[in-house]
Amino acid sequence: MTTPQEELLPGTRRALLHRIAVAQSEGRAPSLVAAVVRDGRPVWHGARTSVDGHGPDETVQYRIGSITKTFTAVLVLRLRDEGLLDLGDPLEKHLPGTGAGEATIADLLAHTSGLAAESPAPWWERTAGSLRPELSDVLGEQPLLHPVGRRFHYSNPGYTLLGALVEKLRAASWDEVLRREVLEPLGLDRTSGHPRAPHAGGWAVHPWADVMLPEPAEDLGRMAPAGQLWSTTGDLARFAAFLARGDDRVLSAETVKEMRTPAAPAEAADVVDGVTYGLGLQIQRRDGRLLVGHSGSLPGFLANLTLSVEDDVASVVLANCTSGPLLSTVGADLVRIVAEAEPRIPEPWRPLPEVDSAVLELAGPWYWGTHVFALRLTAAGGVSLEPLSGSGRRSRFRANGDGTWTGLEGYYAGELLTAVRRPDGTLSHLDLGSFVFTRQPYDEEASVPGGVDPDGWRGIG
């Protein structure tokens, strides 16, 4: 008998509170709020504040900066899923005349477009968006700094272009499309382009003295799709659950998984640091755990959303200061605390509801030359193939319904696996992208490229 998981244990809750208390104190943040999501629902909320009295709760808005980009990416992928564009389309096909039209939609989503990181001066985050009324004002005279598609180079103007693309194909403003297609379906009624009470004020904290300066909250205008939004830990907790599971009213589970898949070539330093970028999502490896999400900052505010799909735990951390606490580290720590203190309880093992005898016959050991692999049956008629020892090429395969399977990951992604049978119907070997897998190492009866030495296996005499 199983019972639903209860709320977090008292020791876990205290560890979470201690972590954000240290972050707020050492980071000298006027306030810091956080939430944790497990199994798709919020299970903890915490806050620390320098103001006496009631601290901010999960309904208080903070500016979330570049987490806005993930929302914009969701809108673009909705257009793709509806067949209105392809990620391989050059921007010029849908939004001509920008001067950056050779970059593809995927390039813009993954920051591989070659565009500059920022718009021309003055600093767009601390000046009115009315200073940049046109896309040309955002991009400047020479928008491309690098060859298109060759390297990851984070670009705020790139997401301005994606917002303009959404407006062009939807014939409506970016914020209107976002509200109608994402915020309302997901119930994110405390997420908006402009602050709505109750909301935190943004502050700059002096680096050498415990005094503060209020930061202006500028309307970013054309740059809004890169960083305009205000939200709460409550709303972002629900958004994190969506990024883990999908919601067919907005994006399917398969499409949000695509967002979480690395899409940008990593720089050497990024390989060392274990970071890369997907389609609107940052990806990092920390403490042996794969984390996806996004950070954000604008003058007066810091934000972070971190998700571990394997642990089914996510965190949201928001603060109202220009600099101070490292929220990406705090977010990762909150996920780790819950995942280690209260590990995910796996679903009960259950046998398959049915099995095709012809597929069952494939299960067991196979040899590619002298390399030993094991083939196992998975759900929905799929199979997996992996080495029996050590690291090596492994993949799950999706059944195609005709006795073949298509690889889903790794070296064999997209490759075709076929069970080859003899004229009498008996199983001969597996063909995987021209590789021959046999029941015995270099089976003499199989078609082995190069043949088998007629004298067979031998020792050293």
Keywords summarizing the entry:
single chain, 461 residues, alpha+beta, 8-stranded antiparallel beta sheet, 7-stranded antiparallel beta sheet, 13 helices, 19 strands, disordered N terminus
Write the layout of secondary structure elements.
Layout: H1 10-27, E1 31-38, E2 41-49, E3 62-63, H2 67-81, H3 91-94, H4 105-110, H5 135-139, H6 156-170, H7 174-186, E4 203-205, E5 212-214, H8 224-227, E6 230-231, H9 233-245, H10 253-259, H11 268-273, E7 275-277, E8 282-286, E9 289-298, E10 301-308, E11 313-319, H12 327-341, H13 357-360, E12 364-368, E13 371-377, E14 383-387, E15 395-399, E16 404-407, E17 416-421, E18 427-432, E19 435-437
Antiparallel strand pairs: 1-2, 1-11, 3-6, 4-5, 7-8, 8-9, 9-10, 10-11, 12-13, 13-14, 14-15, 15-16, 16-17, 17-18, 18-19
Helix pairs in contact: 1-12, 2-6, 2-7
The outline comes out as: globular
Q: What composes the largest sheet?
A: 8 strands, antiparallel
Oligomer: single chain
Mean pLDDT: 94
What's the total count of β strands? Answer: 19
Beta percentage is: 15-25%
Query: Helical residue percent?
Result: 25-40%
Q: Identify low-pLDDT runs.
A: 1-5
Q: How far apart are the first and last residues' alpha carbons, in Å?
A: 62 Å
- Helices, by number, come to 13
As a whole number of angstroms, the C-alpha radius of gyration is 26 Å
Strand pairing plus helix content: what structural class? Answer: alpha+beta
